[in-house]
Amino acid sequence: MVPTKSALKKALKKGYITVNGFIASTATIINGGERIVLTIPEDPTPNKRLIFPLKVWFEDEHLAAIHKPAGIEVSGNKFKTITNALPQNLKASSLPDATTPQPVHRLDFATTGIVLVGKTNSSIRVLNKMFEDKLISKTYYAVAIGKMKPHGTITTEIDGKPSQSHYKVMESVPSKRFGTLNLVKLCPKTGRRHQLRKHLYSLGNPILGDKEYALEGLILKSKGLYLHAYALEFEHPFTNEIIRITDELPEKFRKLFGSDTR
User: Residue limits of the Pseudouridine synthase RsuA/RluA-like domain (predicted)?
Assistant: First the structure.
């Protein structure tokens, strides 16, 4: 049987063809009687794998929780993302609806802390719904600049939508450059984009290291954003256990306030 040009094109995508010992192209004329050989590499297009070790704080057949470092996106079009690193860091689920692990919420590029991951189709759907229904309690820590009231609730609208965050100042230290630095515990009750950063900025107490929501002359460069997703608490949607996951404060926080700050 004489191969057609379309067959040659498909074959060439996977390997190469020789006709009587010469590499063929779609312009090669076949008259009949030629010796045609198709050569296909064992792995012509290997999948790139992101080798990026992650700390895993919790994992079972349904879900997992990992530590997200600063300087990496949770997901997106880039190769280096938390999403692409998950398969190499988590055990594959043995459940019938197991799928490629997927984050069920996001943290900003510069934010550190816990990211919750679904390992099955059903867990991804349920966890997304739990976030929508505010059934997952989130606790953050930030370093905020300037004098603050000991505690309060911020209700400044974000993008025209109702928003709410509770805060409590856990410790304050004097600073030559910033006047006062505060270790602030934050509990967002809504999930708007950049909510905690915008809310603290609206008080006049921007987060240390925030270049986007900052007061003139109070931008800290090259140290990163001092915002950390510290804890998640929720009822496990499949085992009904109460799950509380914590992620210790980064070293740069402890340098400002000491090791026992919570």
Answer: 62-200
Q: How many CB atoms lie within 10 A of CB 8?
A: 20
Residue with tokens 């993302």: 81
* Measured distance CA(156)–CA(167) in Å, rounded: 13
CATH topology of domain 136-231+251-262: Pseudouridine synthase (3.30.2350)
Tell me the C-alpha distance between 10 and 12, whole Å. Answer: 5
pLDDT tens, 38-65? 766 655 445 677 889 999 999 999 999 9
At the top level of CATH, the class of 47-133 is alpha beta
- CA-wise closest residue to 122 among 61, 213, 199: 61
Ranges of CATH 3.30.2350.10 domains, the chain: 47-133, 136-231+251-262
pLDDT in tens, 99-115: 999 999 999 999 999 99
